[in-house]
Amino acid sequence: MKKNNITRRRFLGAASAGAAVAIASKRVNALEIISKKTDKLAILGGTPVRTEPFPSWPIIDETDEKSVLSALRSRIWSRGKMVAAVEKRFAGFVGARYCLLTGSGTQALNTALHVLGITGGDEVLVTPYTFVATVDAILLEDALPVFVDIDPETFQINPDKLEERITENTRAILPVHINGGVANMDKINSIAKKYDLKVVEDACQAILAEWRGKKAGTLGDLGCLSFQTTKNLTCGEGGAILGDDEEVIDRCYSFHNFGRPKGKYMPRDKGGHPILGTKYRISTLHAALLNSQMDRVEEQTGKRSENADYLTARIKEIPGIIPRKNYKETTRTAYYKYALRYEKEHFDDVPRDKFIVAMRAEGIPCSWGLGVLEGPPINREGLIEEALNSHIFRRIYSQERLKKYREQNQCPESDQLSKEVMGFSGELLLGEKKDMDDIADAIFKIYENKDKLG
Ligand SMILES: Cc1ncc(COP(=O)(O)O)c(C=O)c1O
Does 130 sit in the ligand 1 pocket, CB within 6 Å? Predict the structure, then answer.
């Protein structure tokens, strides 16, 4: 993905050709870029591109205060009737038949896999470019997470590599719609159908993202969402399971509520706890906050998308800066994070960490973790070996099977991405075009002065 060197003129030309938006403001901006280019880098004592803060997250107003106060005054703080009303509203909001709210996205994933019968000896196909909770959920069922490498352009699980990892033990595919994009659900669903596999979507980072007009989380057997503080729709801590099968959702309900009977499919003559369960319930206080936050997520998602498209048009021609792409069927991106690949060879080998520090000095918050990485890619994290060496795994899986698993646990594209990925938190996209110009200008300023970062 090498690109030729770019001139300032070409950068400006590309910027205005890339989007027909805000041409006038871009001209003004072009002048700014020219003057900024000659500026000393802020990390070397020069003037930063930006000094004002970006929008902060989460956003609250008096509707949130009213909603939470009313729940507080109701004195029903644990799960009450109001939660069912929010579930109904949310299901309608995203076009799912049913929604079950949970205490977190992690709990939603645990419940979904458990209820679909994933258990010891089973294999679940999953991407290595995901937050740890996705993989925890598989390991907690004593199943094996079988890592399928990523598509280097979209950063999603590579659908063309799924079939080669299917064995007689494969039971499910767990696509993660990472960074607010959507995995290739056409290919994933068709492979699942061919091999009779369940599909559980991890849509925790992709609330309101769409594939061919259908919302992420409503495209497989079950979809899991997170409303943790950083997420595009938040109530502090919360999650949801989306599904169309009443019996499966009733079982999820039962599991998340100590195994108590629920719905017409659950036996009524087997006591108060006919199935194993746990407590993964959302509280009324959290559901109340979710309800008020839901009022503005649609508009915010539109804003994120609009600004992200503008930013992409501004930066995509800078050599070594490669924004994450979306499949053409992705009719909407959630932009939980704006992710891009930083190829240091185009920046005189300035390491990613140094580039990030230089960006921060210019007043642009950025990082490489992006709600995914906290160390090596997840297939290389310590928890995998810890699980493989555990008593239960050694009882369930033969030495030969574990040896083969270790040998096959290779995802070179994901390894490479983990060295190059970086980007911005989604709330940076909630401001104005000028904010995007600042981000683009800072990247370009560093690009032009890269030799001085030595
Ligand atoms: C991809 C992904 N899966 C699962 C989760 C877990 O969600 P929660 O933090 O609500 O448990 C997260 C949250 O960060 C996530 O990003």
Answer: yes
Ligand 1 pocket check for 409: Cβ under 6 Å: no
**57, 101, 102, 106: residue to mutate for ligand 1 pocket, most atoms within 8 A of CB:** 106
CA of 228 to the centre of ligand 1 (A): 7
> For residue 159, what are the contacts with CB-CB under 8 A and spacing of at least 6?
151, 183, 184, 187, 188, 191
State if pTM tops 0.70. Answer: yes
Whether the CB of 371 sits within 6 Å of ligand 1: yes
Three-class secondary structure of residue 83 per DSSP: helix
The DSSP element (H or E) to which 200 belongs, if any, is strand 198-202
Computed on alpha carbons and rounded to an integer, the radius of gyration of the chain in Å comes to 23
Q: Is the CB of 225 under 6 A from ligand 1?
A: no
Residue nearest to atom 8 of ligand 1 (CA): 105
- Beta carbon of 133 within 6 Å of any ligand 1 atom: yes
Please, are residues 415 and 348 in contact by the beta-carbon 8 Å criterion? no
CB 300 within 8 A of CB 246: no
340 alpha carbon – ligand 1 mean position (Å): 20
Residue 228, phi then psi, degrees to nearest 5: -65, 160
pLDDT (tens, 9 = 90+) of the chain, 454 residues, equals 444 444 444 444 344 434 434 433 443 444 445 445 558 999 999 999 999 999 999 999 999 999 999 999 999 999 999 999 999 999 999 999 999 999 999 999 999 999 999 999 999 999 999 999 999 999 999 999 999 999 999 999 999 999 999 999 999 999 999 999 999 999 999 999 999 999 999 999 999 999 999 999 999 999 999 999 999 999 999 999 999 999 999 999 999 999 999 998 887 788 899 999 999 999 999 999 999 999 999 999 999 999 999 999 999 999 999 999 999 999 999 999 999 999 999 999 999 999 999 999 999 999 998 889 988 999 999 999 999 999 999 999 999 999 999 999 999 999 999 999 999 999 999 999 999 999 999 999 999 999 999 8
Q: What's the CA-to-centroid distance between 108 and ligand 1, angstroms?
A: 9
Q: What ligand 1 atom has the least distance to the C-alpha of 108?
A: 11
